[in-house]
Design goal:
Strand order of the largest sheet of chain A: 3-2-1-4-5-6
Radius of gyration of chain A: 24 Å
Number of domains of chain A: 2
Largest sheet of chain A: 6 strands, antiparallel
Shape of chain A: globular
Oligomer: heterodimer
Helix content of chain A: 10-25%
Number of strands of chain B: 25
Chain lengths: ~425, ~450
Amino acid sequence: MNIDKLKDRLKKETGWFDIYYSESKSYPVKFEHSVLEEVNEYEDSGVGIRLNKNGKTGFSYTNNSELIEKAADKAIELSAFGEKEHLALPGKTDAVNLKHEYWKTFDKKTEIAKGTRAIEIIKEKFPHADVTVQISAGEGSRRLINSEGADYSEEYKYYSSYVSALLVDESGSRLDIGYSDVSTDVFKIDFLAEKIAAELQLASQVCDAASGKVPVIFTPDAFAAMLSIILSGFNAKQIYKKLSPFYGKIGNREFNEKLTITDDPLIINSPSSYTVDDEGVKAGKRNIIKNGVIENIISDVKYASLLNIEPSGNSSRNYGGLPHANFSNLIVEPGTTSFKDLCSRAGNGIIADQFLGLGQSNTLTGDFSANLNLAYLVKNGEIQGRIKDCMVSGNIFEMLKNSIEISSDFVSKGGSIIPYILFENINLTA
Amino acid sequence: MLLTKIEEIRRILMSLNCEFADVRFTTADSSSIVLSNDEIENMGSGISQAGSIRIFDKGRWSFTSFNDFSGFEKFARAGMENIGYMSPDAAKGLMSALPLKMNKVTDVQIDFTSVGIDEKYQMLCRYNRILKNHEKIERTSVLYRDVHSDYCYLNTEGSEITYDKYFCGVAFTSVAKNGTDIQPFHESIAGYGGFELVNNQDSAAENVIKTAVEMLSAEQVKGGEYDVILDQRMAGVFIHEAFGHLSEADFVCNNDRMKSVMVLGKKFAPEFFNVIDDGNIENTTGYIPADDEGILPEKTYLIKDGKLNARLHSRETANMMKENVTGNGRAISAGAKPIVRMTNTYIENGQNTKEELFENVKDGIYAVNFHGGQTNLEMFTFSSAYGYEIKDGKIGKLLKNVVLTGNVFETLKNIKMLANDREMYGGLGGCGKMGQSPLPVAMGGPHVLIEKVLIGGNQ
């Protein structure tokens, strides 16, 4: 693809512009139903063109290298009907790429052996388990060029693994548990299988729960699912549209003071890290919530400009779409109480791990109601077994404002860190 | 442009030393316009292409996808090499089919590729004026999207399928606000066809603003067990989520326990209950000329007279269970591998009127329009956009956050009555499975009365 030729053309014909080119390859190895099912390869590359002509913006993309000129024609044609906007795109910065430890070879035979071993670990304890393993390595590059002289390229690699096990009993009752991890270099995956085997053991005992208001511990996966619902509220686009529940509340204490959440794009060996975002803005670590106070929001160039703030360096895009602000590595600051002590504090309550339907919550008001796909009963601080067919409901903002306790134990995935959290009074419908 | 390459692709495909292989190619031109309040959020277009080759030999699969068509031979070789990493498995096979030759050219009333950008934009402005026409409306958004694509499928059995598709849709959102209460309401209309599908939807936009404003006065539902009447859309979501996914053979064929649960002939629901999946219905979003494995779609009775009658298959699952293929091997794009998916799934009409259903509810909830749903194949949860209290057969107070949950098998047994007013619904969204989302599907049914449904909420 001749991106440089396109740059020269746009310089002549348009006001400001940026061009985003990416290419990626991945090599997934997939085990399904406890056997090696397929060995695959994916390849994709394309270019996105955002340009402003006569003060108005148009966008076009293509993944056909012979049609880049045509895509540019389309973007120019569309811009006549686009929104009037002036974006101050960034010029060159002094940022340099992070030095990650990247995988050097991805040997399919070795990876197939790893997957086979992970299945054995689970099958030794649960011969009926239906195990899925997905191991993938990926590599590629991205390049961003704009009218202000920015021209960044980065090559990247990642490695990811996902292991899950399904148990179905005579009544059709299902237990499905999965864990994943991601890095820039290959890693051993036995720990994922071991974690699943331990969890299956814990869930094999089924207990009854009663309706009422109970203490609930959210596991790191459950806590992350909950956070994903409110995090969009810290996006400049939502704030600008007054669709964020945090509109007009930046600088206010909106959460319990034990809650501190940071976005850190500079963590070594995390595939989610970057030093320059996808619009060319220098990236850096930022507190989103510090001791319950909303300190920062994330933004792309467009919505930062509309809010009259500096862009936060969180812009993310693929060649087929416009840039948008996104979190990089999300870090929830761990507390001082161990997970075990958190269970003791809960006394008689439940541990929520997986939800069904949490994504259908009202993200604006924080109201939610979700089935507990996987949850455990806690009695006198001890985990008793799995509880089924029940729902939790409440308001996420109220829950994070009221009394909470965050654990010192946490799960780290790629560059993110998420601990356990205890809420004291949650509606349980059983 | 696809047709010019067919000869060379066929030559390479037929030279592969394997039991079965198929290739798919698509090229697509798309455009999208997004208005948010009075601002144009996106004025964009795309020219894209995708291709893949899938190889099966002695129980081993490889799947290779790409966007650079000129490298096809290289990708075919990589696929053969990847097969070599796996051990042969004699137990696995594929259901074969007769070669299918199809060349379908779609005829639309108004070709959206010849409608000017200005006309599309003016239409969105008109909808936007409707959506914001109330003092309590805080934000609006209107989205328009169209895609014209060409599709080509070839396999080693000698099938050659080409067709084109015109797909377009609009999505409307009004967000109503009163103090701290914010209620968004959303609706989308989409389908296969031309600009005529989207250019006359003023009444749909009017309904969106009306509902958003009404939701401000809706009450929070009280959690507990209720008799519930589902409207046609909720009935569709229920059958898609709660039973449709369970009928996808890939969830059954590899699991002995699931096989013992999903036995053909087993009674799952009352005798008057029938469920169908049918990819042949041309004007719906779940329509397919052929599936992505070169098989024609079938009208499949999943439940007939309350009993499990059949399930949805790909070539692989059909072979594994020694049942017939149903034409349900679908992929979200030519770059994704076909898996077992639904098409148009619905509950067949019953004998009663909607009014008769209401007469049979003393104290219950009417769940209207759907917001979303999810299932783990045993338990399901789906939320209606809103609901109404039913007291002594009469519709009462408007309710919000109505989330229904339950065990699939128990809930099916608790179905009491079916009305005779089936409707189908698709929209701009779709179904998600194994990372392939959103795949266009449609779902529907008549009004359905179910007893003892758990609804979440405050005690």
